[in-house]
Amino acid sequence: MIELQDALRKKEIWAIGGGKGGIGKSLITGNIGITLARLKKKVLLVDADLGGANLHTTLGIGVPEMTLSDFLNRRVENIKDIVIQTSIPNLGLISGAQDFLDAANPNFAQKTRLLRHLETLDADYILLDLGAGTSFNILDFFLFSDHGILVVLPEPTAIENAYRFIKSAFYRRFKKVVANQNIKDLIDAAMDQKNVMGIRTPYDLIEQVKKMEQEVGEILELEVMKFKPKLIVNQVRTKNDIQIGFSMKSACQKYFGINLEYLGYVEYDDCVWQSIRGKRPLTVEYPYSRPSRCIERIVHNVLRKEQLALNSL
Amino acid sequence: MIMVKKIEDLNYYELLEVSPTATSQEVHKAYERIRRIYEPNSIALYSLFTPEETAAINQRIEEAYRTLTYESQRKRYDDMLRGIQQESEEGLPMPSTPRHRAVTTPSDFIDRLDGRTRKTEEAPTKPSGETAEPVLQASLQPPPPFNAEFTGPAMRLLREQRGLSVRSIAEMTKVGTRYLELIEEEIYDKLPVRPYLRGFLMAYARALGYEPDRVVGDYLKRYDAAMESMKKK
Fold this sequence. Notes:
The complex is a heterodimer of chains A (313) and B (233). With 313 residues, chain A is of the alpha/beta class. Chain A has a domain at 2-152 and 269-311: 3-Layer(aba) Sandwich (Rossmann fold), CATH 3.40.50.300. Chain A is 50% helix and 15% strand. Residues 309-313 of chain A have low confidence and may be disordered. Chain B has two domains: 7-117, DnaJ domain (Helix Hairpins); 135-232, 434 Repressor (Amino-terminal Domain), CATH 1.10.260.40. Chain B has eleven helices and no strands. Chain A binds chain B through residues 154-156, 159-160, 163-164, 198, 200-203, 206, 218, 221-222, 224-225, 243-244, 246-248, 250-251, 253-255, 257, and chain B through 1-7, 10, 17, 34, 36-38, 42-49, 57, 193.
C-alpha cells in the first residue's frame, strides 16, 4: 500500500546536462539537491553519468558499494536497494557506476526499466546528473524530465556545446514524434550543417518537412514551442558573464524559436574548489558564500515558477 | 498558422524584443540591450550565427530602431503591420508587380520608405585605412543615371566607374568582400540564401547610390530564373 502511495506522489524530475565535461554539473546538481532537502522536500539524487560518476564526491560521500550499474545489470532487482541515505535529512543518492567508460551505455530496455523504477520511489524531486556529451541516453533523459537544465561556463567552448546539445535534443525529439521514414531521414540529414539542402535552422527544416507533409511540419512546430530548456551560467566573474545567460536566451529564441529559460548564475569563488578538494558539500561547508547563495536563488526561481503555475489554476 | 518565424521575418518589435505598445524610452532601452547582445564578437552567439548573419541582424536592428523612434515612421509601420495581418487573415493573394508591388514583408516596406526618405543620411562609418575614399562622398554624389538591367557585371562596372574597390564597398555595407565578388560574378549557388542575399544587394545598391528596389528586383529576377533552371537539371 505504501508503495502505491509513493508511486502516486507527484514527482518532479530535473535533469542537469551541459554537453561539455568539467563545467560543474555534478557540483550544481548535488548542491541544488541539498538546498531542496533543506526546504524539507524529499530529494533523490541520481548520478546518471555512467563512467564519469562524480556526484558522490561533491556530496562528501566515499566510493559507494552499490551503484546504478548493479541495478542495470540486475545484480540488484529493486532500485530501493541502491539508494544511499546521505547524512543530510531528506536527501538520498543513487550513485553512478564505477565501471569504465565502455560499460556505460545502457540499452533501451535498461533505460526503460530504470525510469519505471525511479517513478516508484518516494521523492518530491528526482535530480539526474546527466554527464557530458550528447549521447542518446543523455538526450533521452533530458527530454523525459520535467525540467531540463543546461549548465554553461562563460566560455566559447561551453557555449558551443550548449547549442549543440539543444540542437541534438530537439532533433532527437523531432525524430521521436515522426513516423514517416523519409522525414526521419531528412531530419538526420539536417543535423549536418553542410547538408546539400541548405537547411541551417530548425525553421528551414520545418519548412522542408511541411513541403512533404504539412501536418507533420505543424507537429514539429508544436514540439519547438513545447521544448523549454533552462540555463545556468557557472563560474561567473563579471557582469558580462551574467549577461551571457540573457544573450543566449535571445539567440535561442531568434535562431531556434525555442524559449530558453535563464534560471540564474553561480559566481566563481575559491571556496568551491576548496570544498571539492576537501570532499565536503559546498552549501554545507560554506553556506553563506556567494556560490551557495546563488544556488539558493536558482532553486527559489524554479520553485516560484512552480507556485505561479499552481496559483493560475 | 506559423508559430516559428525566420529571423528575417520577425517584425521590428519582435526583433527588438519589445512590446508593440512600448514607449519610445522603452524602445531605446530595448535597442541598447539587443545591440549589445548581437554585437559582432559576442561569445553568446558563438557557433550559432556566422559573422555575415550577425551583420545582417545588426543591420535590421538599426532599421528597426530608426523606424520605431520616429513617430510618423512608426505609425506607418504599425499600419502596415496591421494591414499584413488582415491580409493574411482574409487570405488575400499578394500581388507582385515590379515597381508598385504590394508590400509583402516588413523589410519591403522599409526598403520603399528608405528609398524615399533616406536620401543622403548615410550614417558615417570610419573611412578605411587603405583607400582614401571617404564614405560620405560616395553616397553624396548623385550616381550617373543607369537605365539598363542591374546584373552582377553591371554593378561591378558601376562600382569601378566610381573608383570604388570591393574593399570599400565592404566597409560601407558590412558585407564580406567574398560575397560581393560572388554577387558581381553571379555565382549564385555559392551565395547565401535569398533573404540574406537580398539584404546584401540592398546594401550594395545604397552604397552605389541606386534605388535598392530596382537593383534588387533586377538581380533577383535573374537569380530566381537561374535557380529554377538549376533545379530542373
